[in-house]
What does this fold into?
Amino acid sequence: MKAPKHTFSQKQLAFQELFIGTLIYAVVLGFLNDYTSVVEVNSFSTIFFASVVLSILAYLTFALKKRTIAWLKNHQGAFFRVLTFLSVWLIMFLSKFVFVWALDLLFGTYISINGFFGILIVVVLVTVVQRLAYFIFKRLGPSNS
It folds into this structure.
């Protein structure tokens, strides 16, 4: 018996990505708050609201990255390949400063992610957990063979 094939709208996929991203950010921030000095947070409510903000910012960052790649992909040549790489690197690099600025603006002293490398650690851990969760999700689905 074949499982019905699901198609999802862009709004559904965006909601799913933001919802799961928020939960993953909350888990990562919570563990880093409890077991390291990278993140210092006063309450779980702050962790949760910061997770929502970080999830939205990450979603917007990846959307900008995707649009930039799509726009530059239409051009040929080594110059545009280098420009694509530099553009993606710049978007991803500068986004970390936007993340820190937004958290500072919205939460002030209620949350502290210590330094640029602190936010980098958070983002790397979140990315690894999201990729692992997606890998497990796909492996649990029906095989294509």
Summary: Residues 23 and 122 are 13 Å apart (CA to CA). Helices lie at 10-35, 44-73, 78-107, 115-140. The beta strands are 39-41, 111-113. The chain has four helices and two strands.
